[in-house]
Amino acid sequence: MSLNPVYPPPRGLLSGQSVVVTAAAGTGIGFAVAKRAAEEGARVLISDFHERRLGEAADRIASETGHRPATCLCDVTDQAQVDGLRDAAIAEFGAVDVLINNAGLGGEVPVTQMSDEQWHRVLDVTLTSLFRMTRAFLPHMQDRGQGAIVNNASVLGWRAQKGQAHYAAAKAGVMAFTRCSAVEAAEFGVRINAVAPSIAMHAFLAKVTSDELLAELAAKEAFGRPAEVWEVANAMIFLASDLASYMTGEILSVSSQRA
Asked: Which member of 167, 171, 229, 255 is catalytic?
């Protein structure tokens, strides 16, 4: 197996389906999964709270795939804006087949130095926003008797790391929420799963994380490198597609960390 994987060609796994992706501006996992969805034949709507970066992401996806995604500004900590995103997606596509809940917020701070504001902000963006999005979109999918939701969790929902108590608690919550909501949604023909990446390198992560910590985390990986964001996106596309038709409530680790 190559330690330097080749970007995969499109195969049409989501041909004709409508896909909504949160936190898709920038160059992170949200952008990567939106691009992969477009390459797999989906009609895509990307959202973020940063207008300029959202437009730049749409331009880049259009230039690289030939398909320009629809865009909608949305602060996922505001239920009214979340509901507005749902309404915009239904107006754009007629129906929503796939929801990718990608929004999240981290930061490194010891528990003894963590403020209430830091704790609540990370949980609001990373966990509560996922609840808001699911509450908004799931009834629409249940009424149609079909749909797939893919959440972005983290291996820190299982494993410990200094300075990450708020983020790890939020991601563990994402995992538990995924499992419980999946059981509720299954009887309506809707699947809900999550991915749990270890480390996927992108510009924002490099900006907020020291070189020393990034090197330490990469050294824990069996491949000796972080994942590419599209490698995480591939797993999300799989869970969104019919190839995962018998999977729900699952947390799929995207990691080469040693046990």
From this structure: 167
Q: If DSSP codes are grouped into helix, strand and coil, which group holds residue 71?
A: strand
CA distance 49 to 258: 36
Residue 246 falls in the annotated catalytic set:
no
- Residue 44 φ/ψ, nearest 5 degrees: -120, 140
* Longest pairwise C-alpha distance within the chain: 50
Element (DSSP H or E) covering residue 241: none
Examine residue 116 and state whether it is found in any structural domain, yes or no: yes
Prediction pTM value: 0.93
- Give residue-wise pLDDT tens across range 157-182: 999 999 999 999 999 999 999 999 99
Residue 206 clears pLDDT 50, i.e. is over it = no
User: Could you tell me if residue 122 is inside a domain?
Assistant: yes
The secondary structure of residue 127, as a DSSP letter, is: I
229's tokens:
């964001």
Q: How many domains does the chain have?
A: 1
151 domain-assigned: yes
CB 192 within 8 A of CB 248: yes
Residues 6+ apart with CB under 8 A from 43: 16, 17, 18, 19, 70, 93
